[in-house]
Amino acid sequence: MMARSPTTLDAFAAIAEPRRREILSALSRGLPVVEGGRDVTWLVEELGWPQPQVSKHLGVLREVGLVSVVRKGRRRMYSVNGEELKPVYEWVKKYERFWEQQLDRIKARAERMERERQ
Amino acid sequence: MMARSPTTLDAFAAIAEPRRREILSALSRGLPVVEGGRDVTWLVEELGWPQPQVSKHLGVLREVGLVSVVRKGRRRMYSVNGEELKPVYEWVKKYERFWEQQLDRIKARAERMERERQ
DNA sequence: TTGATATATTCCGATATCGGTATATATTTG
DNA sequence: CAAATATATACCGATATCGGAATATATCAA
User: Which residues on B lie below 8 Å from A81 (Cβ)?
Assistant: First the structure.
């Protein structure tokens, strides 16, 4: 019984978690990427979550390559590594026509008629 | 003990599953969106998965609003509803500079090394 | 060295999620 | 109505995943 597939840990899975998106957002605001980044303590204060939780989510982001780390003494400076977000961007972009076309109205009407028919 | 958060079922979570991305891909290829869409049987044949699996993933996509359904007799015609992908697009787009900048940096360094080599 | 600080890791319990199989529900057709 | 077709749903077992608490590891400072 094969059960669940082994969680292909990729960028898609990583950003599915709202808190990990929050981390990326926090890391990306303000600071120029050129600097070393921001350390975990800063993130903990900024987000107000328990430190292990922050570290664990950072671990996932790290494994997937969405963040980069640089050791700085006993600190670890994290920064967003956008490279890994590009595939997500490219994927979604393929569906651009689906929201740009205004066929939505046609579809919406069809659905409305459908609902009324039930 | 609060345990796991209740799986905020949104577009991000929906597209985290590779098979659901496959479904969207299958639904989006070839066919103009104007038509009613494609039915489940077509998807089952196209993907080669057991029918319940297809229906269940369609159920998730439906709940999130990533696909639209229109009943056509005993068939259900599915089509991609791009509207719900827009937030994902907008979110990733915010990080565009992170991979573009990185490419710039790589390119810049390559050029610098090239100059120094001469 | 000892203690403090910064961060990661481990262990645990609860729950969500996935695939598989069987079954229910609707709709058409004979 | 009965049989067939199309699709959804329910149930189950395995596993992944999350949050929480405790602990390990590394580094700095006195």
Answer: 98, 102
Which of B5, B16, B70 is facing A12, going by the closest CB pair?
B16
User: Which domain, by its residues, includes A37?
Assistant: 11-117
pLDDT band of B36, cuts 50, 70, 90: low
| pLDDT score, position B118 | 42
* Percent of chain A residues past pLDDT 90, beyond the cut: 68
Domains: count for chain A: 1
Give the domain CATH number at A83.
Answer: 1.10.10.10
User: CB–CB of B12/B61 below 8 Å?
Assistant: no
Asked if B92's CB is within 8 angstroms of A28's CB, the reply is no
Determine if strand C comes within 7 Å of the CB of A47: no
* Residue A71: inside a domain: yes
Amino acid at B48: G
**How many CB atoms are closer than 10 A to CB A59?**
11
Nearest to A76 by CA among A40, A44, A48: A40
Give the pLDDT mean for A84-94: 96
Residue at shortest CA–C1' distance from D18? B4
